[in-house]
Please model this.
Amino acid sequence: MTHVIADDAEAVVVAPELAAKSAREAALRDAERILPRAELDELSASGLLGITVPRSHGGA
Model:
């Protein structure tokens, strides 16, 4: 299930954690031209994509 980011402060905490995790094997994925499917799934599940939705429409 996708998490819903409650506010800017939560997004600021979640984003660097997710970025660090995704960066671990980024060079290998790039070199081998592997699509980051698992990382995209984690990004979606983290709720960070919801920060692009205006508050007036239910976003963080």
In short: The radius of gyration is 13 Å. The CA atoms of residues 50 and 59 lie 6 Å apart. The first helix runs from residue 8 to 23.
